[in-house]
Amino acid sequence: MLTSLPNLLTLSRIVVIPLVVGLFYVDGDPARWAACVLFVAAAITDYFDGYLARTRNQVSNFGRFLDPIADKLLVASVLFMLVAFDRVSHLSYLPALVIVLREILVSGLREFLAEVRVGMPVSKLAKWKTGIQMTAIPVLLVGDAATFMPTRLLGEVGLWVAAILTLITGWDYLQSGLRHMRGH
């Protein structure tokens, strides 16, 4: 099942990470656009791997394990690089940090809840958060290379909106997790 198309799409998100990170070290607008295209392609695979796994009846334990990890690795690595290369304002370090910390919190909660055999489904609001986040990040990757619109401002506003939704959904997940912890 490792070589099923859904799992290969998930693995492709991990493979693209060093390429996107490497493009931060290449000067020029083409590198920014290339990083954006790679990130968008990886983000699109997040939708299609789950869709294909369900419609083709190829849902696997490996895919369920690796999919959220691939997402978190991709988002966290790009957020770290955006901060490290000063592609976001100092004020936007905060939403980047909130997003990364929430991902760690939710991963820990899911691990605990899996041990006690409790599922934690993704909420609709969390899906919106992911959509906004996956839109804001490529806009920030392009940054100043897009002279026809204020991309950095738009990307940072999107990052803040995603961070606010991150706090709300993180709090919801924490509340749910604490209810189950009290029961055990």
Strand content: under 5%
CATH topology name: Four Helix Bundle (Hemerythrin (Met), subunit A)
H/E element sequence: HHHHHH
What's the CATH class, please?
A: Mainly Alpha
Q: Cα-atom Rg, whole angstroms?
A: 17 Å
Share in helix: over 70%
Q: How many domains in all?
A: 1
Q: What's the mean pLDDT score?
A: 89
How many beta-strand runs?
A: 0
User: How does the major sheet shape up?
Assistant: none
CATH superfamily: CDP-alcohol phosphotransferase transmembrane (TM) domain
- Unreliable residue stretches: none
Q: What does this protein look like?
A:
- The chain has 184 residues and is an all-alpha fold.
- It has one domain (5-183): Up-down Bundle (Four Helix Bundle (Hemerythrin (Met), subunit A)), CATH 1.20.120.1760.
- It is built from six helices and no strands.
- It has helices spanning 5-23, 29-55, 61-84, 93-115, 124-142, 151-183.
- Helix 5 packs antiparallel against helix 6 (151-183).
- The chain is globular.
- The protein starts with a helix and ends with a helix.
